[in-house]
Amino acid sequence: IAASPAYAEAYREKGIAQNKLYLKMHDATLPTGEEALRTALMLEPTDFDALASLGDILKRDGRYEESAATYMRATEASYGHPYPLLNEIALQARTAGQISIDARRRSELERAERSLRAQVTANPPYNAPLSYFPLAAIRFYLGDGDGLLEQLEAGLPSCRAAWQPLTFRDTLGLVHTGGVSNPHLVQAMSRLSQAAADLPSDT
Question: Per residue in 108-119, pLDDT tens?
């Protein structure tokens, strides 16, 4: 940054590094990375990684509407990457009290599903369990509660630390807290909590 003050990627990586340190050290006096990420996006508004990372910070800070809008920008910048897409849907459900899947969102979900199915059917599965959990969420958002539970159970054996099921549980929890009442959703959250209790807490 000192050598090239207009280098957007440097600000992005600084923001990501600051946020990792902030979360690791649990020190409120440390920078969260938000300022650096916003500078990166001022310089390069369509940087997917910067948008998704900023969305993460805003979500953890409880700024759900702003986070959802940031994830939406990340989804558009990445042409439908599952990570920001699924976070966007969860946060919109949190603020609106319902899951809204229009034709465009359905098309994006179906496209993301094809990519994730290719990952979980590889031998061995690619990026498990973090490929199974997004696939589970997609099945739920497309109205397939049984599919949510099926993909969740398929992914749990690959979990090696409690944060993996807990992260997915917390994302589903946004939907539930928003007022979406669904027995499959409640069962999935309970199962993820149970799985996390049997895993080591270290990362």
Answer: 999 999 999 999
